[in-house]
Known about the structure:
Elements: E1 2-8, H1 18-25, E2 35-41, E3 44-50, E4 63-64, E5 70-78, H2 81-90, H3 100-111, E6 121-129, E7 134-139, E8 148-151, E9 156-159, H4 162-165, H5 177-186, E10 199-201, E11 206-211, E12 214-219, H6 235-252, E13 260-263, H7 268-280, E14 286-292, H8 300-309, E15 313-319, H9 327-334, H10 343-354, E16 359-361, H11 366-370, H12 374-384, H13 390-400, H14 410-422, H15 427-435, H16 449-455, H17 461-472, H18 478-488, H19 490-504, E17 509-511, H20 517-524, H21 540-545, H22 552-556, H23 566-570, H24 575-582, H25 585-588, H26 595-606, H27 613-629
Parallel strand pairs: 13-14, 13-16, 14-15, 16-17
Antiparallel strand pairs: 1-3, 1-9, 2-3, 4-5, 5-6, 6-7, 7-11, 8-9, 8-10, 11-12
Helix pairs in contact: 2-3, 6-7, 6-20, 9-27, 10-19, 13-14, 14-15, 18-19
Amino acid sequence: MCGICGIYKYGSGLPVERGELKAMNDLIIHRGPDDEGYYEHENAGLAMRRLSIIDLSSGHQPISNEDGSLWIVFNGEIYNYKELREGLLARGHVFKTKSDTEVILHLYEEKGEAFPKELRGMFAVAIWDERKKKLLLARDRVGKKPLLYAVTPSSFAFASELRCLLTLKDLPREINPAAIDAYLTLQYIPSPMSIFKGVKKLEPASVLVFEGGKLRTHKYWDLPVGEKKFDDVPVEELKERLRAEMSEAVKIRLMSEVPLGAFLSGGIDSTIVTALMAKHSSTPVKTFAIGFKEEKFSELGYARQAAKMYGTDHTEFTVEAHMTDVLEKLAWHYGEPYADCSALPSYFVSRETRRDVTVALNGDGGDEAFGGYLRYVGMKAERMIAAAPGWSKAAALKAVGVFPKSAPFNFFWRAEKFLKFSVMNTLERRYLSTVSFFGPGEADGIYSHKFANLLGAENNYGERYLSKFFALNPDDDLLNRMTYVDMRSYLPECLMTKMDIASMANSLETRSPFLDHKVLEFAFRLPGKLKLKGLKGTKWILKEAFKDMLPPDIYSRGKMGFGIPLGIWFRGELKDYWAGACLSQKSLGRGYFKPEELFRLWDEHQQGRRDHGYKLWALLMLELWHRQYADDFKL
């Protein structure tokens, strides 16, 4: 596991200096504290920081092929590299290391730009072809490992994290208004855009080639859209195949020469991963759990049940509001506005886990692959009542609107939200309302006239972004259409970003068996009715396949999620912090929002008329990002 970066001065032909590469590389030392490496030749240069996991003695990067015409830097893990290496050796390739990095390079010699199709794992790769003066970048199928790039009049540069690219002297720091709009809607900024107009993110499952001053990209993988589902396969057979796929996905991720453990939340997915780790391990699995002193937000009790069932070496940690002094550090690490509040507990569990192990497995991807989110239930319920006259739904919406929307009236808040999206006229808008912080049209109401005019036609980018994924899978059942959208958007752009940054900020590698591409392809071919049974049976086939491996309370529990008590904190220990940041003269003076609208949100939250916790969090993280990267910015 590493951080990588590089520069190709295609425009000027000037040599790349070690100091330029080191300035970038030093900013990602947390991604690889064990080693660093550099390659410079004429107007091209590569650099890396290494977190040593396998081939500890000889895996130093950058690595070249036999004649030194190809050079590679690589971030990730390839779980089938030994099998690939054996085949390459049999075909005459000569190796000088036992690392997966060198396997990728020789595979490129044989397969060219198609080499990522052979890899099973997570990766961000950069290959410099010295003879052709060609730079190639590639990213894994689900976006586990990040890769950003920038093209200036004189150079092409890439890096694992955005801040590295800001060292380029001719890169303007012009903020992208559409990125701000997308962020407030989605809680993240989706690829290929970034917060800066001059920086792009390589999309998951993509290859980028920069040659002759020209850039091109293509995708090499997608879920099996349009392929026949497993409708005719007996359910018991599907359960056995699912167990086998997951067992193998966990087993191959136990490959490590350093201490290894698991995140254990007490949910279905992390418990299954822990159970399979225990099955394949000769020593007790080290597990790590995090919770909150606010009991309804904490899953520690469930995690203890799983830890006891499998005899793990278990460690727990509790997050409290005063620990949010790490927020500015998080804003620095993410490099652009990022509003998934579970980044905070993810950072802490990674920090505590790193005290004992260097690698941790997790349950990421289980909800997207097997239909675990409550929004799937809501969308299915909405479809079931879609035949009701519009006037009756409008009347019901008006009726619940008179009730308070805070505790103990949470039912009315949920009912209002459900009814609001049930009267929306498209599937895409209804779905967007279930995943957005500021729902369809809500952000427009707080924008200043100047910012709204600046957005122009770029307004509502988040809605258009999600709509394109619905359009790519139009003929599937409702559940699989929704999971497809999440696996192309929320999973790679939000969840993978969160876990990569939170873990690598603490020099911890995380691995996700549910995101093995063979598991994902198998799960996508399951009909939606086997994932969501009725209106209660989320992840039905997954739970049934592993019923004997789950504590009864975990098997029967509903979805909780990795949320934090924002509403409580913003009325308590974070009250003054938020107001001091977001209602300050400097913040209001940036010009994004109408000041009176921010005060309205704040007052409604403080008076308990509405719980705006997630919106307040998004606004706070936007302001903290500005303090780190654009403190003097204003429209």
